[in-house]
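User: My collaborator and I are trying to settle a disagreement about how two of our proteins should look. Neither of us wants to argue from intuition anymore, so we agreed to look at predicted structures for both before our next call. Could you fold the first one, then the second, and keep them clearly separated?

Assistant: That sounds like a sensible way to settle it. I'll keep them separate. The first protein:
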Amino acid sequence: MEEDKKEIVERLTKLIKKTREGQSIKNIVYKKGNGDDEYVEVIYFDRTKAIDVTADSGIAMIRDIVNHL
């Protein structure tokens, strides 16, 4: 089964934004870079943070995002 990482991030974003920590977040976006690079941008109202999720499974990606908030 192929995981849809973009959809996972979109759904996780909705959940995170319901929390106190999430109120400072404008959006969270999954992006593919050059080659096999994958990352997630956490877009706050005053800054942006990139999280490397290259080769992460769906659950590993969720862990990485939550741990970097």
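The second protein, kept apart from the first:
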Amino acid sequence: MAWLIQSDSPGPVLVQDMGLTFTYKQIKNVDLIGRHNAEQSRDLRYLLDKKFLVEIRKDASEETLDPKTVKQLKDTIQQAQEVVQTQSNKINSLEEQNNALKQQNNELHSKMDIVLNEVKAFSERFPLEIRTISEAIRNAESERVSIAKERKALPKSGESDAEIKLHDKILALKEKKLEKNVKDLGKTVSESASDYKDTLDALDKLNL
């Protein structure tokens, strides 16, 4: 609720009994000093009558509304404020997530650039070795898939439980050795690579 008054006089306008001064075209909400006080102001009434001040908007005051209507208005305002706050919180949360993703993306790109440069430098120094390493890493991918298929087929192999456990243990050891070899190969060409996949991505980008 507001009672908005605007100055329509080129010079400053003083509402002496309210202690308010308006500059040209300035708008003030005189409800801020109380609707009752504003309506009792003789100076304000005079300046409005003489058109030095112009009434822009005058909402109904709480005094002229029944309590039920006042409560409904306050509840509506509160609900609107809660909706705005909820939306603001959501926006802030999305901005934080977006900034975190941007930072993560920047870090990944920066790291990938380092890995690319290291792999490129190694390939230029050791052109034959890089081909051997590249082939070994790619073959490891196929071997890993083969181990996974073999492990999945064990329950249907017809072997005894003891034989299945032994076979599974052998496959686990084989897989562990494969992982170590691939990791060592990846680190050979790029110290900054987190694992062989970083190295493999770099090899693909460089067509090696």
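Some points you might bring to the call about the second protein. The beta strands are 3-7, 13-15, 20-22, 27-29, 53-58. The chain has a mean pLDDT of 81.
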